[in-house]
Structures are given as structure tokens and as C-alpha cells.
Amino acid sequence: MGFVTTQDGVAIFYKDWGPQDAPVIYFHHGWPLSADDWDAQMMFFLAQGFRVVAHDRRGHGRSAQVPDGHDMDHYADDVLAVVRHLDLHDVVHVGHSTGGGEVIHYVARHGDSRVRKAVLISAVPPIMVQSPANPGGLPKAVFDDFQLQVATNRAVFYHNIASGPFYGFNREGVTPQPGIILNWWRQGMEGGAKAHFDGIVAFSQTDFTPDLTTVTVPVLVMHGGR
Questions:
Q1: Distance between CA 4 and CA 73 in Å, rounded?
Q2: pLDDT at residue 226 above 70?
Q3: What residues make up the domain containing 213?
Q4: 5 backbone dihedrals φ, ψ, rounded to 5°
Q5: Among candidates 15, 106, 67, which has minimal Cα distance to 192?
Q6: CA of 115: how far to CAs of 23, 52, 106, 204, in Å?
Q7: Total number of domains constituting the chain
Q8: Which residues lie below 8 Å from residue 107, measured CB to CB, with a gap of 6+?
Q9: What CATH number did the domain enclosing 98 receive?
Q10: Tens digit of pLDDT for each residue in 139-155?
Q11: Is CB count within 10 Å lower at the N or C end of the chain?
Q12: Is the pTM above the cut of 0.90?
């Protein structure tokens, strides 16, 4: 585990576990979490002989709580900084939610010369917010309320998300797991409110359609229904 400094001077925390010459799986976390959200999966693949890498997005987790740069361009550039710092090649990138958008934008923005495959798990591409071009999206008012809650009531808001829809603990017959809920809450509260506030726009309003048309590496898409 360590830090890399990006071109615009932001300290990005990363984890790098496993043999240096092993196949690499790079995990990208969702909003408003950190690399810790992937610990179980990282431990599993580490035991299978892989090298596993994950970073805390700027303003999230242990990375610097900078006031700006909370957009997909900077997120993708931060990934490149970690990839270059660790000299990673032939990487499988796995992204959940916002992390899936980060993966696609990284590949589109910086090319696939170091990329082997990508995996998108309940990810935000192509775009989340509702518009005439995307009538099936969520109304912007939903994300406006997210921002209001982050700005005014973040601790309770995060606990409610983890206690309910994120893990499906609000479904009939599902028993809530307090440790899992508190771990989600801990990760959220460890990051910066400004980064999380701005990040809502980044994950909900970024249109990844142009990025998707440029990706040529194999991509596995895993997306459930309601």
C-alpha cells in the first residue's frame, strides 16, 4: 500500500497485493466508497495467484480531499497515474457503479495498450440521468436530492443507503447485517463531502456513449434488474 502523486499534485492512495509478475486485476470502487469495498474480492483473487490493485478515488477514502477535479477526466487520469507508477500491463479492470464509468472513460481517454479486459458491474454507463435522449433514466431531481443530503445530512444519509437499497436489506425476508452497514458508512464518512457532492454530477450526468464506441477490448457487463 502506498501513495502516488498525480500531475496536478493530488496524493492518491492505492493497494497493491500479490506477486509482481502475476496477472493483474484492478478494482474500481463506487460512490462514495473506497478501495476497501473490494477487500473480499481482492482477498479471493489474491488466493488464486493474482496481483490485485485498487485505489481510493481523489477525495475518497485515504486519498487527498482536494476541492476540485471531481470529474471523469480527472478520475481517469488518476487511474493512469497509478498504472504508470506500478508499471502495470495487460490489466483486467473491474468497476462497480461509478467505478465502471471510470473504467470505460480511462480506456477511452488513455487507450488500451495496457488493458486486457474490462468488467462492468451495475455500472453507470452509458448515462444515468433522464433526458429526451435517455427517457429511461432517473430524473435529475433524484440526484439533486442526493446532493442536498450530502451537503446537509451526510452521516444519516449514508447509513440509510447502506441499511436499505444498497444491499437489499429493505427487501422482505432479508436480514440486515450491522457490520456490513457500518463498514459502508465508515468508508463514506472517511471521504470528503465536497468530493462526494461533486461526484454525484460526475456519475449521473456524464454521457459515456462516445467512450463506449471506442472500446475494443472484451467487456463483460453484469447488470441486474429491479
A1: 17
A2: no
A3: 2-222
A4: -100, 125
A5: 67
A6: 11, 14, 10, 25
A7: 1
A8: 93, 115, 118, 211, 214, 215, 217
A9: 3.40.50.1820
A10: 999 999 999 999 999 99
A11: C
A12: yes
